[in-house]
Write a structure and sequence with these properties.
The complex is a heterodimer of chains A (171) and B (185). Chain A is mainly alpha-helical and 171 residues long. Chain A has 9 helices and no strands. Chain A is globular, with a radius of gyration of 18 Å. The chains are: A mainly alpha (171), B mainly alpha (185). At the A-B interface, helix 1, helix 2, helix 4, helix 5 and helix 6 of A face helix 2, helix 3, helix 4, helix 5 and helix 6 of B.
Chain lengths: 171, 185
């Protein structure tokens, strides 16, 4: 059983089932669905607040999602730690600048990879807040609750995601 | 039921951290904190992401609906709209393919040492969420309310009891996993 912690890969069904169990915990112990993107929003507000605190205070959006460290922020921090522990235990932790698939398709230009990740991140941040959720908030928590908004959002994630990936990788 | 726990803010931060550690652990072991796996899914050559998500949906769905029926938990759904859910979802999807991570897996990718996730992806998401917060009043007024859905949940939308829909979903989602397995995908 303990060997499982040191394996480099789990069956996707086992990993998924584990996430399903964590969803039970977050509803039961924290009265919250699992979600990640609001934490980015709060962090963004905290950083902006370092420069112009008055502006952040007056923004309508930050009145709904106060820029502060709370449950979800700690959860996202936990994801970083959990993935770190997992990869160290299995000996797969590695500092890397360009993923393999990217390198095979676009070469080893680090700047190009960072630029594409940056632009993708900006659109993802916008889209996640626009639809009030991300792959975990809508894709797992929302779908598990049978949310109609989440079903539509997840269809959007994958329709645009598959379409865009097909276009950029057919270059 | 656990109201006293829910209201203890410091305890909640610790619970959040613990759930996150478990989440990051599962994501990393499942291979979905890797750009290659996510892009493989979007190119329809590797179905790991769908397998992880669908397994999480099945297990999560059964558990939270049982707990809801036992009055142990509350659900958190809201009314979406075409302007919010569909348009936002499509914008997210374009970003998903360019970045190759999502907001949760980008955190996991950072944890396993991916610098493109940290310096490109996470920075981008922070800028994107900041832009949304800035333009929220305009976007909210002009776009988010377009085509508001009449109800919050799928069972209400198709006028079927919640448990029937859960049962059908569990069967269909299990069928998806079975199909992927026999196809060798």
């Amino acid at each position: 059983m303990l060997d499982l912690l040191f394996e480099s890969h789990w069956s996707p069904y086992l990993a998924g089932a584990g996430i399903g169990l964590l969803l039970w915990c977050s509803f039961l112990f924290s009265n919250k669905p699992l979600g990640c993107s609001t934490a980015f929003s709060r962090t963004s507000g905290m950083i902006e607040g370092l420069v112009s605190p008055a502006k952040v205070k007056n923004k309508e959006y930050y009145k709904m999602f106060v820029p502060e460290i709370e449950w979800q922020w700690m959860m996202v921090l936990g994801i970083i730690l959990g993935a770190f522990i997992s990869s160290v235990l299995s000996g797969t932790f590695q500092i890397s600048f360009i993923p393999q698939t990217f390198q095979a398709a676009f070469g080893d230009n680090i700047l190009l990879r960072f630029l594409m990740a940056l632009v993708g991140g900006i659109m993802m941040g916008l889209g996640a807040r626009w639809s009030w959720g991300c792959t975990s908030g809508h894709g797992i928590s929302g779908m598990a609750q049978l949310s109609l908004a989440s079903l539509v959002a997840v269809m959007g994630f994958f329709i645009a995601g598959i379409g865009t990936a097909m276009i950029i990788f057919s270059w | 039921m656990f109201t006293h726990i829910h209201n203890n803010q410091n305890l909640q931060k610790i619970i959040g951290l613990l759930i996150g550690i478990g989440f990051g652990f599962c994501l990393q072991k499942g291979g979905v904190t890797s750009y290659d796996t996510i892009i493989g899914q979007l190119l329809l050559t590797d179905f790991t992401v769908v397998k992880v998500m669908v397994s999480a949906m099945i297990v999560g769905m059964i558990g939270i609906h049982v707990m809801k029926s036992l009055n142990l938990i509350d659900f958190h759904t809201f009314k979406g709209s075409i302007g919010s859910s569909a348009i936002g979802g499509l914008i997210f999807g374009i970003g998903f393919a360019l970045l190759g991570y999502c907001p949760g897996t980008v955190a996991g990718a950072i944890g396993q040492g991916q610098m493109d996730a940290l310096l490109g992806g996470a920075v981008g998401i922070l800028i994107g969420t900041g832009l949304f917060a800035h333009f929220y009043p305009v976007i909210n007024e002009k776009i988010l309310s377009i085509g508001q859905f009449p109800v919050e949940t799928i069972p209400e939308f198709i006028h079927l009891p919640r448990w029937i829909v859960v049962l059908v979903c569990v069967i269909v989602l299990s069928g998806v996993l079975w199909f992927l397995q026999i196809q060798g995908l």
